[in-house]
Amino acid sequence: xxxxxxxxxxxxxxxxxxxxxxxxxxxxxxxxxxxxxxxxxxxxxxxxxxxxxxxxxxxxxxxxxxxxxxxxxxxxxxxxxxxxxxxxxxxxxxxxxxxxxxxxxxxxxxxxxxxxxxxxxxxxxxxxxxxxxxxxxxxxxxxxxxxxxxxxxxxxxxxxxxxxxxxxxxxxxxxxxxxxxxxxxxxxxxxxxxxxxxxxxxxxxxxxxxxxxxxxxxxxxxxxxxxxxxxxxxxxxxxxxxxxxxxxxxxxxxxxxxxxxxxxxxxxxxxxxxxxxxxxxxxxxxxxxxxxxxxxxxxxxxxxxxxxxxxxxxxxxxxxxxxxxxxxxxxxxxxxxxxxxxxxxxxxxxxxxxxxxxxxxxx
Length: 363
Hints:
The protein is α/β, with parallel strands linked by helices. It has helices at 23-34, 75-92, 103-116, 130-133, 138-141, 152-160, 204-215, 232-241, 278-285, 299-302, 316-328, 335-340, 347-362, and strands at residues 7-13, 42-48, 65-67, 97-100, 121-126, 146-149, 168-170, 183-184, 189-193, 222-226, 248-252, 263-264, 266-269, 290-293, 308-311. A seven-stranded parallel β-sheet has the order 3-2-1-4-5-6-7, with helices on both faces. Helix 8 (232-241) links the parallel strand 10 and strand 11 (248-252). Helix 7 (204-215) packs across helix 11. The relative contact order is 0.12.
């Protein structure tokens, strides 16, 4: 009986900046932990070409990886040398499949394959809204052999770019199933976990205005902001201007805020764009409902009638109404039901799907 062919996969880790705590980094570390071991049909390696001298965000993990460089602290030098290392690796690799997280690396892998007559397949795996980040890179996506879309919105964007539907699989992102349950708070207690930005992507100015409006009916409302960023002082000034100093607490950056969060009403997200927000999945896996802006990609794949609400971006009145509904109707969001509402995202189901797709694409 002929043994099954092993599909050797190289995942090219893109350029990240310390402290490596973003959602994409979290997903890559999860892949690195799970796509190794006894899966005979798929053997994944994680190719880290963009390394800082003092950092390796995979250093505490046990998976198969190839690390280049680690010579410089300068971002500029890390980028330049990383590109050289990537060209070298793509030229010598014997992998069956290359997974890349940037359209410029799709093009690089494609032309190296063409010039050197390599045999590998190219899979794109984007973690941001294409219409926001890669609108000028449409042609690059047509060079890939296959695409992982982390949301149905990104699949639609790929199709708008001209990619055929049968070349795309919506894979989402994985989340670990946890035993912890965030308890229902007696007072209206809302949470935000992530990078601090006044406007731009995270759009916390809108969240603070909603808290100020909500306070008119519920004077004891509390917003806990877990995270940090260069615009923290600007946000603190807005808090003072809105006279909600007693209602907003900046908790700062901690390695795992969900270990410290014990109770709450809902997670809030007022983003202007996302890929597939991991903060939403982290909240839901702990049983905490989520209220999020209904943007082009991401939240509508995660949030449903059992676990939260979506509101129209920019409509603060609608956001406040959704906040009041979730707070005054906790029975509609039983914590166990919220946890069970994201079964398809849990790691066991997620990696079963990923392995089957990789086997099919690489065959």
